[in-house]
Amino acid sequence: MNSLLEMKHVVVNFFSYGSMVQAVRDVSFTIEEGQTVALVGESGCGKSVTAKSIMGLIKKPGKILEGSQICFDGEDITGYSDKEWQKFRGKECSMIFQDALVSLNPTMKIGKQIIESLDNHAVSLLKEEKKKQAIEMLELTGIADAGSCLQKYPHELSGGMRQRVMIAIALITHPKLLIADEPTTSLDVTIQAQILAQMKQLQKQMNMAILLITHDLGIVADTADKIIVMYAGKIVEEGNARDIFYHPVHPYTKALLGSVPRLDKEGKQELQTIEGSIPDMTHPPEGCAFCGRCPYAMKICQQYMPEEVYISKEHRAACWLMDERAGRRKIYNG
Ligand code: SF4
Predict the structure, then answer these.
(1) Can you say how many angstroms the Cα of residue 317 is from the centroid of all Cα atoms in its chain?
(2) How many other CB atoms sit within 10 Å of the CB of residue 221?
(3) Which of 179, 196, 254, 309 is the most buried (most CB within 10 A)?
(4) Cα(44)–Cα(48) distance, rounded to whole angstroms?
């Protein structure tokens, strides 16, 4: 598999009134073609800012700092002009958001909004052919009466239907990467599961990669090939679903897992809340940012940032507990 996206040492800051919010702090990861990667963490931990940096949506007072590299299909896209971003968005990479009602145009019929997405990318087709593609795309997202859906306005549809329409708009141009930012958060659990299953189905058909952004570890177990846990603008752990769900090593990952109901622990699981809150990102701590909330915190955690340690080829974490001197052996040196 080739790397479709490579994030290398990405740093994003927001500047305001003499202060600086350090939203993303030296984040590196890759997404392969056709892979599903989940970016998980509480709100405010930098997930959405990371996603927006891939879409060229970091606007003033935000800034991607020099030295950051975002390579898509081997090309660094951080220096793209507005024109290049316009071409890139939707065609190479599409994004869907949590609130479809806000993202869709309330004054425009669904059909027109889907066809507009094709028009924006200069897809030269006859009007009838565009309509046919719009209907096919809506059907693929699980909308039964797609023909009549084209004639409706967003407010005439249910939340689940609107989210399916958003997916249709995002996918009609066949992007290589779909970024889904909390795509099912506002929906009930059954619809959530249906929509995620539908996205997976479409992913297979289109050989598209997905970056799924969520605060809910519960929804990624069956969905993601790779899970990246972020805290206070940094990646604290990365691994496959088995690593993260059965062999987590970072106390934050463990705390997140403790707050998610699990079928395999039915009856004997007591749900935990994570005490405290994310630190002030205008002055992030010098050492580990989870220090103030971590039950295992040591003196060194306050003073020095933990180095990243590889537990296996695909499983990495940044925590002093994994340092050899803390008595935990580094298993993998790759
Ligand atoms: Fe806890 Fe220290 Fe590990 Fe941070 S580095 S998660 S404070 S043990």
Answers:
(1) 19
(2) 17
(3) 179
(4) 8
In whole angstroms, give the CA distance from residue 134 to residue 125. Answer: 12
For residue 321 the two structure tokens come to 């507990």
Q: Check pocket membership of 319 for ligand 1, CB cut-off 6 A.
A: yes
Give the residue-averaged pLDDT of 50-65: 96
User: What one-character DSSP code corresponds to residue 325?
Assistant: G
Q: Is residue 105 part of a domain?
A: no
Query: Does residue 180 contact residue 141 with C-beta atoms inside 8 Å?
Result: no
Evaluate if residue 290 carries a pLDDT over 60.
Answer: yes
Tens of pLDDT, residue by residue over 246-281, are 999 999 999 999 988 766 666 666 777 888 899 999
> What is the dihedral sign for C-alpha 317, 318, 322, 323?
positive
Contact yes or no for 11/233 (Cβ under 8 A): no
The number of domains in the chain is 1
**Is residue 157 in some structural domain?**
no
- d(CA 223, ligand 1 centre) in Å: 28
305 lines ligand 1 (CB under 6 A): no
- Distance, CA of 230 to CA of 54 (rounded, Å): 16
Q: Which single residue is written with the structure tokens 């030269």?
A: 124
> Is 193 within the bounds of a domain?
yes
Ligand 1 centroid from CA 321, angstroms: 7
**CATH of residue 249:** 3.40.50.300
Instruction: Report helix, strand or coil for 312.
Output: coil
Whether residue 318 has its Cβ less than 6 Å from ligand 1: no
Q: Which residue is listed with tokens 């309330």?
A: 106
| Residue 167 included in any domain | no
Tell me the per-residue pLDDT of 187-213, one tens digit each, with 9 for 90 and over. Answer: 888 888 888 999 999 999 999 999 999
- Residue 7: closest CA among 236, 200, 235, 305: 235
